[in-house]
């Protein structure tokens, strides 16, 4: 079943339920802020203090960072992580494929506001498949008359039992840029989180597994050679208005991306596709 819903302030979202799973997707940002399969805990973390308000990004779920990731390269006044996560998308397709799988597609086209921030024509689609896995396919088509460069991410907040309990497998041997130190290192062991972490891993498209006490979350990425790992830890969590002081303990961001040297140039008429498939096992 696909239901169109709105909060008292008019904030619109879509609620999906099928025999296998449920999900919620905000029209602002095409932001998936809830997904869970029948016998599992929610896969995505959502801050208890998240804002569901026009123009503010939701803290949790899967914000979409586009057309740039992080701070803008040359103009730091421009919004962090681009404008996709705070823009209103339109619903372009809904389909109940079978009893276990629902497809929703959202579209973002340029407006005078996006043109003021980024002077290009584009057609961006997010295709979400809600089933035994959550599949997110972000397609960016260049409808302009000149090529453009983009950096982007599916900024996924995974829901974990406690940050002390998790191990991230699949990054051993990968180089990473430590955004806190501005330095590059090699990941020597499977990753555990014992402090603030903000890193961009260079990786080939093999699975990353987030091992927790009661489950493993598997993240498969396509069209991506970079993955961000982020946990704000104690001090940054305290500074965030939309995160509880202890919120950092139950989340870990593993963000399928195209960042730094993995940024992409999209030629006129071409489409770049970034995809993430995630599930618990
Ligand atoms: C991560 C970045 O992807 O997002 C961090 O690597 C950043 O540097 C974090 O702090 C959260 O960003 P925001 O804009 O949602 O607070």
Give a verbal description of the structure.
The chain is mostly beta strands and 281 residues long. It has one domain: Beta-galactosidase, Chain A, domain 5 (Distorted Sandwich), CATH 2.70.98.10. It is 5% helix and 45% strand. The protein contains two helices and 21 strands. The chain has an eight-stranded antiparallel sheet with strand order 6-7-8-9-21-17-16-12, with no helix packed on it. Strands 5-11-19-18-15-13-14 form a seven-stranded antiparallel sheet, with no helix packed on it. A four-stranded antiparallel sheet has the order 1-2-3-4, with no helix packed on it. The longest helix has 7 residues. The protein is globular and about 45 Å long. 40% of the residues are buried. The structure holds 6-O-phosphono-beta-D-glucopyranose (BG6). 6-O-phosphono-beta-D-glucopyranose binds next to strand 18.
Briefly summarize what is shown.
With 281 residues, the protein is mostly beta strands.
- Determine the mean pLDDT: 97
Number of structurally distinct domains = 1
Strand order of the largest sheet: 6-7-8-9-21-17-16-12
Q: Oligomeric status of the shown chains?
A: single chain
Name of the CATH first level? Mainly Beta
């Amino acid at each position: 079943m696909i239901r169109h819903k709105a909060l008292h302030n008019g904030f619109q979202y879509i609620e999906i339920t099928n025999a296998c799973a449920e999900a919620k997707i905000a029209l602002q940002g095409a932001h998936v802020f809830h997904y869970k399969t029948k016998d599992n805990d929610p896969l995505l973390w959502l801050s208890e203090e998240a804002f569901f308000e026009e123009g503010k990004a939701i803290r949790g779920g899967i914000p979409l960072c586009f057309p740039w990731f992080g701070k803008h390269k040359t103009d730091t006044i421009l919004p962090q992580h681009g404008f996709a996560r705070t823009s209103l998308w339109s619903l372009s397709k809904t389909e109940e494929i079978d009893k276990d799988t629902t497809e929703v597609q959202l579209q973002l086209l340029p407006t005078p506001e996006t043109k003021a921030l980024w002077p290009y024509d584009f057609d961006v689609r997010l295709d979400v498949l809600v089933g035994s896995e959550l599949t997110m396919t972000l397609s960016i088509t260049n409808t302009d008359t000149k090529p453009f460069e983009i950096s982007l991410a599916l900024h996924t907040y995974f829901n974990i039992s406690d940050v002390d309990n998790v191990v991230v497998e699949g990054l051993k041997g990968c180089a990473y840029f430590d955004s806190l130190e501005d330095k590059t290192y090699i990941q020597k062991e499977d990753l555990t989180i014992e402090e603030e972490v903000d890193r961009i891993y260079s990786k080939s498209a093999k699975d990353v597994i987030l091992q927790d006490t009661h489950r493993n979350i598997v993240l498969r990425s396509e069209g991506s050679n970079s993955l961000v790992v982020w946990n704000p830890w104690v001090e940054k969590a305290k500074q965030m208005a939309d995160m509880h002081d202890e919120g950092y303990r139950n989340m870990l961001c593993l963000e399928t991306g195209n960042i730094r040297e993995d940024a992409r140039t999209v030629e006129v008429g071409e489409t770049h596709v970034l995809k993430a498939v995630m599930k618990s096992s």
